[in-house]
Amino acid sequence: MKTLYVRIVVAFLVVIVFCLLASFFAVLAFFQKEIDTIGQSDLIAVGEEIIHLYEQTRPESTDAFLTSMVKLSAYPIQMFTDAKEATLYGFNDNPAVEIAPEAIQQVLRGEYYRSTPREETYIGIPFSYDGKRHAMFLQFSPENEMIINRFVLVVLLLTLLLGSLCILIVARYLVKPLKSLTQATKRLAKGDFDVDLKMSRTDEIGGLAKSFHEMASELKQMEQMRQDFVSNVSHEIQTPLTSISGFAKALKDDNLVAEGDRSYYLDIIIAESERLSKLSDNLLKLASLDSELHPFEAATFNLDEQIRQVVVTCEPQWSAKNLRIELDSPVAVKITADADQLKQIWLNLLGNSIKFTPGGGQILIRVSQTRNEITVAITDTGIGISPEELNNIFERFYQADRSRNSSGNGLGLAIVKKVVSLHHGSIEVKSTIGKGTTMIVTLSNAPPSSDGS
After folding, report:
1. How confident is the model at residue 402 (pLDDT cuts 50, 70, 90)?
2. Which bin fits 225, alpha (ψ -120 to 50), beta or left (φ > 0)?
3. Which of 18, 211, 239, 376: CA 20 to 30 A from 33?
4. Does the domain formed by 295-444 have CATH 3.30.565.10?
5. Which of 63-67, 169-173, 234-238, 385-389 holds the top average pLDDT?
6. If you classify domain 4-146 with CATH, what class do you get?
7. At the topology level of CATH, where does 204-286 sit?
8. What is the pTM assigned to this prediction?
9. Contact 386, 432 (CB under 8 A)
């Protein structure tokens, strides 16, 4: 009983046996009265025919006549001249039904008698011969009833046998794909995601197999992403660690580094340390944003004022490159959102524009508002992004033109996309090589729920 196959077979067998027995007794109870009535009518017809033949032939021996009639009709006969003494024909070793004296007297008075539903099926007919009135009772032959019972029993047994055979086949057919799913699950548990069940069924099991295949594909993709993530993190961490370790060892040896170069090497160590710190901070932010437990603190504030503060925060960077920044915004654009998360968007987007815009360039920040949406477009006159790279720039650790961006770690835009997604917004990129890039963030005016949904 531990396997599903055995449970299905046993359950089906129990159901079949129960249904057969219940159907048999239900049909018997429903048609019992009709069966008795038809049987009694047949017995009466046979009895009347026996009397009719007797009156036509007037045989010399009544006993011989009745014995031959029993052989022809296969219905045993009991003859009564009074309520006490009976003459039996055709019973041999089979028992005769016990007939009540009241029934005998009723027939001797010239009336027909039909057995009640609680009795075995028999009838009584008045039969006069040798100058006396007799009560003739006909009943079904026990041998006939045994044949009928054996017939019904054989039919039930054959039905049970054939049904069991069909159930064994059908159950195996039903359980086989489940066994395949079990084996596939074990392979998934061991890290083998190349699972192909090859099922073309359209039923529920086919739907389950299709969902399982999709799950395996997604798990394989997630595992590949995990491996890529670990590889990228290891690479991003290893590079600054190598620099820090190398320059620290060099500084330790007075013979390798001149006194005038020590400050330069220390600046490199500090820069690489800050790079590691920023990488760690971004990884923690992404992990927090990905988790369902990330706090989402919605508040209503002036979006244009927040962007203006971000521009002021980044002033040392854009002033050093002599960039001109313009903010085009209507008065008091209010939004209900997580202020800290949105601030991460503007810091990352404006930071990228400053980083990739040559000295003397321009950055335009335009904020527009409709009834349902707020749009923030940041346009720079930087180096631009090639069309082949536009589809990848929001992937984690992806860096467009790594040779020009050695200080980045490829997580900034991934954070931007995640925050925009949590606010049910969208981000679009338009760029032309050598002319600049426009990042367009669209946010909803409707306040999000506290869980970011």
Report:
1. very low
2. alpha
3. 18
4. yes
5. 63-67
6. alpha beta
7. Helix Hairpins (1.10.287)
8. 0.48
9. no
